[in-house]
């Protein structure tokens, strides 16, 4: 799976301090952060955006192969020589998934 970081319409959060989980209003305010609850009492979450961290993670993801060639080749060989086996529980789970429409 590839992640498209250039997708149009993605809004990045505004930079700034945010409250840590478990901080009360006084501790959050003392640390220069919001409490995580707006004036109407609705919970809010803010995520920090560190471009260098995102770029680092992006590079790591893009360095991974799209298809695990070694694993695919091993499966092809075991299927080809008749040594690939599937247990009854795995077959039952796959049938149940197909019938229910839920991926397992």
Low-confidence stretches: 22-34
Our estimate of the beta-strand percent is under 5%
**Shape label:** flat
Helix content: 40-55%
The N- and C-terminal alpha carbons lie at a distance of 18 Å
Q: Give me the strand/helix succession.
A: HHHH
Radius of gyration: 24 Å
Structural class of the helix and strand makeup?
mainly alpha
Number of strands: 0
Report on the biggest sheet: none
Q: Give the mean pLDDT.
A: 74
Supply the number of helical segments: 4
SSE arrangement:
Elements: H1 25-30, H2 51-63, H3 69-80, H4 88-100
Please provide a brief summary of the model:
This protein has 104 residues and is mainly α. The radius of gyration is 24 Å and the shape is flat.
Structural account:
- The protein is 42% helix and 0% strand.
- It is mostly helical and 104 residues long.
- It has a domain at 69-100.
- It is built from four helices and no strands.
Key features?
104 residues; mainly alpha; flat
